[in-house]
Amino acid sequence: MSVNEFLPTLGRHALEVMRGLGHSAFFFAELLKNVPSALRRFYQVIAQVHAIGNYSLVIIAASGLAVGFVLALQGYYTLSRYGAAESLGLLVALSLVRELGPVVTGLLFSGRAGTSLTAEIGLMKAGEQLAAMEMMAVDPKSRVLAPRFVAGLISMPLLAAIFSAVGILGGYVVGVLMIGIDPGAFWSQMQSGVDVWEDVGNGIIKSIVFGIACTFVALYQGYEAEATPEGVAQATTRTVVISSLAVLGLDFVLTALMFSTPN
Amino acid sequence: MRSGAAPAGGQDSSQICLAMNNDALVAIDHVTFGYDQRVVLSDVSMAFPRGKVIAIMGGSGCGKTTLLRLIGGVLTPQKGTVSFEGAPVNPRDRHSLYALRRRLGVLFQFGALFTDLTVFDNVAFPLREHTSLPETMVRDLVLMKLNAVGLRGAAHLKPADLSGGMARRVALARAIALDPDLIMYDEPFAGLDPISLGVAANLIRRLNDATGATSLVVSHDVNECFLISDYAYVISGGRIVGHGTPAEVQASEDPEVRQFIRGEPDGPVHFHYPARSYAEDLGMSS
Fold this sequence. Notes:
heterodimer; A: about 260 residues; mainly alpha; about 0% strand; globular; B: about 290 residues; alpha/beta; six-stranded mixed sheet; four-stranded antiparallel sheet; 11 helices
C-alpha cells in the first residue's frame, strides 16, 4: 500500500472511530436521561435484577470459591517463607475486596449477563420488536434499555460482594480447616487490616464503575447490532471483548487513583 | 390528483381522486427518498382518504415498506413532504411524532410480537403504556380485541406457541388496541396458507369498516389486494406506474402494471440483473 493510499485509509478509519465514540457517548447520555423513568417503574428493574443478578449467582459463587481456595494456597506458600502465615486471612481478604472481587466479577458478568443482554436486545431488534415499540410511541430506550441498565448497576456491586465473601470462606476452608492456621489469627488479622472505607469502599466504587461499563457496552452492542444472525453473533462477541478490556483498563486507572497515595 | 402516473381511467377513479384531495388523512406530496446513491422513491405523490382501504402494490424492493416508514416518521424524505391531517410529519420533533404514532396502528410483516409476553399482554401493551385505565377495563378491552380477530381463547399463549397466521392476527389485535385512525399493514399476506390468507384479508376489510379507520395495505399479493381495497397504487422503479379502483388497475394497458398483475417473468421489469454480456462473462467474446 502506497503512502497515497495509506493516509486516506488511516484518516477514514480515524473518522469512523471518532464517529463511533461520539455515537456511543450520545447513547450513554440517552441512557442516563432515561434512568429516572426506569426508577419510576421499579418493578421492571426488579425483574431485570432477577434476570441479570440471580441467574449469575451460581457462576459468581463457584468462581469466588475457587479463587479463594487458590489464593489461600498460593498465599500460604509465600507467607510461610517469611513466617507470616497467620496473615493469610488479611492477604486473602485484601486481594479479594480491593482487586479480584470487582475485576473477576466484572469479567464474569460480561461473559454471563452481558452476552445475554446483547443477544436479547439484538434479537428484539432483528424481530422488529424495538421498531414495533417505536411505532407504538413507546421509546425502547426508556422501556427496554434503561431498566436493564439500572439493574446492571445494582447487580454488579452485590455480585462482587458475594464473590469476595465466598472467596474469603474458600480461603478459610483451605487456610484454617485444611492447612491448620489458627482461626483466631486468620479472622483478627483480617479485621484489623481491612479498612471499611479505604478497602471495601473503594472495591464497591470499582464494582459500580464496572457495572456501568459492562452493562452499557452490552446494551449498546445489542441496540446497534446488525439485524441478522451474523450481526447478533458479532455483537455478542464484541460485548465480551470490549467489556473485558474496559474492566481491565478501568481497573488500572481506578487502582492508580485510589491506592497510589500512601496513607 | 397528484401522481406520477395518470389514473387508470374511468369515472369511479376521478370521484375517488376528488374525495382524496378533499378529505385526505395522509398526503404524500412529491416525495423523493433513497439510500446512499440508490433512489427508492422518485417524486411520488399520493393521498389516502379517510375510511378507505388503500392497497400499495409492487415487486420486492420497489419502495413499498419505505413508504410506510416515511408515513410513520421513521425516515425523512429527501424531497417533498408527508402530512397527516394536513400537518407535516416531522421525525425530528419527537413529541409531535409520538403524538402522531399514538394514532397509528402498524402491522409488521411477521407480527413483531414481544416474545417474552403472552398474547394477552402483547395486546394490553399499548393500553398499559398510553392509558391509565384500571386493569379490569384493560382486560375487557383486550378480550374484545382478541375476540375481533378470533383469538380470545389464545390469550394465555406465548407468541412461540402461535402459527404464523395466528401471530399476524394477534399483531392486528395489538395494532387496533388504541382504535387508531390509520392502520398500516406491511405485507400482511406474506407466507400465509390459503385459509389464513383469506382470514387476514377478511379481517382487514371488516375491521376497517367496523372501526371507520383508514387502512393502508402494502403487499405484492395482487388477488387479495384487489379483493379488499377501494383504491390501489402500483409502484415500480420508485414511481407510480398505475392507480385507480381495483377494476381500473386490472384493466390497465400499462406494460409495467400488466406485467405485475399477470406475474410475467420478463417485460419492462427484466428477469436478468444488469450485467455484462453473457459471452463476455464466459470469455467467448473476440
